[in-house]
């Protein structure tokens, strides 16, 4: 009986550790994906700002009057 109880305890503990590791893995995966999406959004916003800046530079009256 003690051996059966020991084996059951060992199996339950093994499952608990497995579930804990799976939970940690899911959290890390979610955090990495969230970080990647945030970096992509920041990169896209930076690109939009750069495009708007260069559009303003090239479309400014001073740029056209100097490049005649």
C-alpha end-to-end distance: 97 Å
How helical, in percent, are the residues?
over 70%
Shape: rod-shaped
Quaternary structure type: single chain
Whole-number mean pLDDT: 85
**What is the radius of gyration?**
29 Å
Secondary-structure element sequence? HH
Strand fraction equals under 5%
Tell me the structural class: mainly alpha
Q: How many individual helices?
A: 2
* Number of distinct beta strands: 0
In this structure, how is the largest beta sheet organized? none
Extract low-pLDDT stretches: none
Descriptive account of the structure:
- This protein is an all-alpha fold and 68 residues long.
- The protein has a domain of 40 residues.
- The protein has two helices and no strands.
Write a concise keyword list for the protein shown above.
mainly alpha, 93% helix, rod-shaped, 68 residues
In short:
The chain has 68 residues and is mainly α. It has 2 helices and no strands. The protein has helices at 2-58, 61-66.
What is the strand and helix layout of this fold?
Blueprint: H1 2-58, H2 61-66
